[in-house]
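User: My advisor asked me to double-check a structure prediction for NAD(P)-dependent oxidoreductase before group meeting. I don't want to rely on an old file, so could you generate it fresh from this sequence?
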Amino acid sequence: MKITILGATGRTGTPLVLQALERDHTVTAVVRDPARLTVDSHPRLGVAVAAALTADSLGPLVAGRDAVLSVLGPHDLGPTSICSDATTAAIAAMRSHGVHRLIVVSASGAYPGPGDPPLVRWVLKPLLGLVLRHPFADTRKMEDALRATDLDWTIVRPPRLTGKPCTGQYRTAVDRNVGGRARVSRADVADCMLNLLENPASARTVVSIG
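Assistant: Sure, here is a fresh prediction for NAD(P)-dependent oxidoreductase from the sequence you gave:
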């Protein structure tokens, strides 16, 4: 497939780009600073510089692609709109160019609910929500924007992310949390996103991973 990756230089974006190339996808990596992309040149890798993620700037970068994958996230605990703004821009750009498949990374911590053990659901996640209230508010706004569209979106909700290698040994659950799984590697999240990309039945679902 031809895919565009937002957040390609991030800690989840790098393994996502590498794994996508290993699976024979053609990748457009959207970056602000090309020097931060620590991926060797590849005949199926294109690097596109976008200083700001707007519908206009993303339009040419999604045109003709099969899907857009976003692994953008905040860098601190302060007020942010990076996820919701980029997703809104991507939605507008995709609509303009007839692209329908969009997969984004969200956060399990922002959504206490079914699948969580009682302590996690009623105590730990609410406490985490106080600490991460600004990033979580942005995450929820992003998810709301997706649900209001007719795109074939998939939301991936991981717990705490680590820098460990890809194992493929993780669990997923649709429209509920993965209980008892407090962390997962960023590389495994990338693997999960690509599996979902290749599975049309995952469209318009929320997939938790752990």
